[in-house]
Write a structure and sequence with these properties.
The complex is a heterodimer of chains A (328) and B (467). By secondary structure, chain A is mainly alpha-helical. Chain A has one domain. Chain A is built from 14 helices and two strands; from the N terminus they run αααααααααββααααα. Chain B is built from 15 helices and six strands. The radius of gyration of chain B is 24 Å and the shape is globular. Chain B starts with a helix and ends in an 8-residue tail after the last helix. The longest helix of chain B has 42 residues. Chain B has 467 residues and is mainly alpha-helical. Chain B has one domain. In chain B, β1 and β2 form a beta hairpin. Chains A and B meet through α6, α7, α9 and β2 of A and α11, α14 and α15 of B.
Chain lengths: 328, 467
Amino acid sequence: MDVFADIFGDFWDPKKRIFFGYLFLSLVIGAVWLVAVKHKTLRASLAQIFDRRVFLSSSAKADYKIFVINRFFTLFISPLLITQLSIATAVFYFLLSVDWLQSGVFSDAPIAMIVTLFTCAMFIFDDFTKFLLHRWMHRWPLLWAIHKVHHSAETMTPITVYRVHPLEGVLYGLRSVFVQGTVLSVFFFFFGNAVDLITIVGVNAAVFVFHVTGSNLRHSHIDIHYWPWLERLLISPAQHQLHHSTAVEHYDKNFGVALAVWDWLFGSLHLSEKDRTLAFGLPPEEASADALLDIYLRPFRDMAAVIRRRLRRLQRALNRQNKTLKEN
Amino acid sequence: MRSIKLHTTALALIAMTATGAAAADVYGPFPVTLKGYEGEKTNSVSYSGQIARHALHDSLKKAAALGNGGANAAEVEALMLSYFNGSDADLDILAPKSKDGFPIKQTTVNAISKGKNISGKFYKGAMPAWPGNGTGKDAVMHMIKMAAKADKGFDAENGYDWGQVISKFTMGAMMYNQSVDNYLDEKLAADNKPNDKPYKDGAYYTGKEHSWDEGFGYWGAPAHAMSLTPQQAYAIAKGKDLAAADANGDGMVDLKTEYVFGPAYYAAGADKGGTKSTNYMHTIMQAFIDGRQVIADAKGEALSDEARAQLKAHAATIESNWEKVLAEAAFKYAGSVYKDINKMAEAEGEEKAKAYRAYVKHWGELKGFAMALQSGRNNLGATAVELNNLVGFGPVTMDNSYVTGIDADGNFVRDRRMTWNDYQLNMLKTQELLKGKFGLKSLANDQLAQLEGLADKMKAEASAETD
């Protein structure tokens, strides 16, 4: 029973995206979208949402298996990672050691303001660093070798969010700890003990809003898009689906999670395209959609290949330099 | 089957009542067990000498605030020394004193016990926490001299509140040290103050009975402490709640058995504040009572090895919890000092001076307790060195200088400066050190608690969720 709870606990944890309440709301939003915007019958809408070809595809089945397998990795790896508290304490000590900074300078600010500022800052920095790391995952070959696992999905379900290599989980976990530890200590240093997080069901209120407005539809085949002006501020499900598209013009677009402004600023924003059918996945020579051993091991082979290539290039450069030195 | 069950239940009940009868919840009276005693005494408990020393200590603290900045220094020093060294005259108890609705039975020290002093029982080991490379006693003598010259016990220039430093240091250097390093240590040995002989010629109590009583007396709790909540004990020490203090119902507080003195007061304070997850006062009190029962049960015979082992186990409980109480207090005041620095930064003019006064007071308590911790049975080694480095000989003062030592005449030298931020950092590290080394739980004024709480709150959110 404990093992079961350890593995499937995320479904009833409101801090997680696949909490059953959020999944249910996503279902409602998807159905309302299909009925009201796409003018389908409710029956047809539900049939489309629960499409067997999506949920029972070999790619989706691999997602489910990865979901379970990764839980074991998480159980063993996460206790080894550094905690927010150690980072927060270190940063706090550092700030105190800076002579020209005075702790508690803003501690007289109204509590409501401090708490709102902190909650927003936490959400914004969290979202921005997710964007940055995601961008690097695509731009740097060494990281792309890991991130390919996620992009090898040929059909997308809410569980696809768990389709990541354990190394990617580690990187995202470290990012989260780093951001939270830093923001936390900086706020404590300047605003004092009134700092607190506005939470709903134990989760940052802004993150809660993100989840109840259909965050699960990002990994789905329901292509809800927003008005173009809104898609410049918030990433719509259709925009994220476009991020997974196999079309060349969609490569390296829409790295954002909740906010679209980062993509907009960094020039990688792509608005959704109405009524365009997207294909997802990667060519077989890049990654497999359903072979588990390949999914878990190929990233290591690919990373080794990247490193070998770099070393050969370095060797050639050194050789060239030696040659020029000798000739001179 | 059923009858077996019934039997076991009955046995369990008998066992429970038996232990219930044996475990008293009041420290005394315990019977006179001395073999061959033919006097009229029926209660062998006696620790009035320790209570007299508590009164001397409280009065010494009060006297430390009587200086007027130098003019009456000789007079104040003489008064302080009379409490420290004891006096042929019957000294007035300067504290604790009767208050409206809280009458105290004794008004002079001799009314408690005659011929007592602090100096003879003061820690004489090395005390590197104080400048001058002297013993604990050298340190307190220096403090007394300085206090007499100060204005109402406050030295703004060097950052000392003498009443606080002297008093908190004494709680370790006399009470804690005498109890855990003397009476509950070597006096528990088989051949030292044996139980089959009187404590001294003519005494009506045995060697072990009185040794244990003296250890208890220094702890400073009333005999009925087990029936008091930490809140009540705290109130009694503040001269409130006569009903809780007056165990015998005579309408007065008898300092000998009904009052709460320093060490017990700080145990109650730790239990009542912070995380409210500790039970230091009752734990220590119960160990004293249980230990006394072990001795009474020996009925005047020499203690068996088993009985002495039990006694030592109780002594170990007392020592470790008492040490924690001192460390909890130091922890709390390190937090106060940290907060006071923030307050000073925000305040201006008179408010700033007031904030500085509070800061120096809290620092004095921190320093005193830090020194008290170093006056126990064990050498704290590197922990003491680190603690002394973090806290310093004196706090950072208004011009950012702080005491680094004393000159040949015993005057303070302040030839280093430190920023307020750095000193705040020292306070955080002090809390971290104390928390880690002594396994503290009450953690009042924990300056990183909020940070820890929030980090904990967000832990579950630390998502590896990617897209």
